[in-house]
Amino acid sequence: MGTIVVRPKKDGSKSFMAQIMRRNGGKVHRESKTFERRQAALAWLEKREAELDAPGGIEKAAAKDPTLGEVIDTYTGESKRQMGRTKTQVLRAIKKHDIANMRCSKIKSEDIISLARSLADERSPQTVLNYLSHLGAIFAVAKPAWGYQLDREAMKDALIVAKRLGMTSRSRERDRRPTPDEIKRLLEFFSDRQKRRPVMMKMTKVIIFAMFSTRRQDEICRIEWKYYEKDAKRVMVRDMKNPGEKIGNNVWCDLPDEAIKVVESIEKTDGKIFPYTNKAITASFTRACKVLEIEDLHFHDLRHEGVSRLFETGSTIPKAASVSGHRSWSSLKRYAHLRQTGDKWAKETWLWEFV
Predict the structure, then answer these.
(1) pTM for the whole structure
(2) How far apart are CA 34 and CA 41, in angstroms?
(3) 253-284 per-residue burial string, b: 16 or more CB within 10 A, e: under 16
(4) 328 pLDDT above the threshold of 80
(5) Strand extents, DSSP E, 151-233
């Protein structure tokens, strides 16, 4: 007889996980499924145990019908594309949930919704969507690649339901842009500290480069001198962030004249242009904003300022994408409302005193 495990939820209610274990020679066959009511769990146990105990039942259940957890292992093991840290952590976390013990052919949309509900107890709707998106990659390749019966339509239906029920949502786009006064205060802050400690990070150059190049802080830390081409006004950004692909996604990006001016002010070496870490830049920038009482300004907002400036100075979407590195032009549609108003930074000549 199978067992039922009562699992308390964050809201005080309970769920009931029905578990079955059968030995078949030297192997162990396991199945589990979670229900909202004990009676439903008992009914499933009775029905499923009868199917497994029938002649050839276990063999049929195990024939090219692995658990989702096993498919995740197959996916990560056979993928030729190196996965990013976030995706690896997400798939590892999913394996700890009940759905990972279920056979592929048995997973329905309600099982995916149950996973989403469990995730939503402790995670934001944006994070839950991230989990389901990475799991969706498994559903997309399992059947055509290995013949495993994971239902892509079940995943699509679950994503729709999860969104309608508020379990998932996309991250809100930030519209925060730094003012010239805020940038000047930040540059003065870092310039003062750099004079007292010449060996510290050249945050003044980092900030100005980030704003005009539109590069993310982790990308800035990876740029190498050997991939910088002054005459062509471009630089290769290695492992650029992109949905579904990051490792090995190397992109040549155009550099505006202002960004080139910053690079040319730095002594050339055999390594990286900015030999710092992502965490160090973020921590330093955040600390400075706190000291200066600059509210709600993130380092990533410098990228938003840079892209906005491109459109305000008359760049087309293709031209802006050649600088920002956006593969999908649809991502730049949020800037379509910006009018060609000119370069607001052109008159801020003090900016170059910090380079």
Answers:
(1) 0.64
(2) 7
(3) bbbbebbbebbeeeeeeeeebbebeeeebeeb
(4) no
(5) 228-229
- H or E element that contains 79: none
Assign 250 to helix, strand or coil.
coil
pLDDT in tens, 90-148: 999 999 999 999 989 899 999 999 999 999 998 889 999 999 999 999 999 998 888 88
Supply angle C-alpha 87, 73, 6, rounded to 5. Answer: 85
Burial label, 96 (beta-carbon count in 10 A; 0-12, 13-18, 19+):
exposed
For residue 74, CA distances in Å to 33, 187, 209 come to: 22, 50, 42
Nearest CA-CA partner of 300 in 124, 185, 173, 170: 173
Backbone dihedral region for residue 126 (phi beyond 0: left; psi -120 to 50: alpha; all else: beta): alpha
The dihedral formed by the CA atoms of 76, 80, 81 and 87, expressed in degrees to the nearest 10: 0
Amino acid at 330: S
Residue 243: is its pLDDT beyond 70?
Answer: no
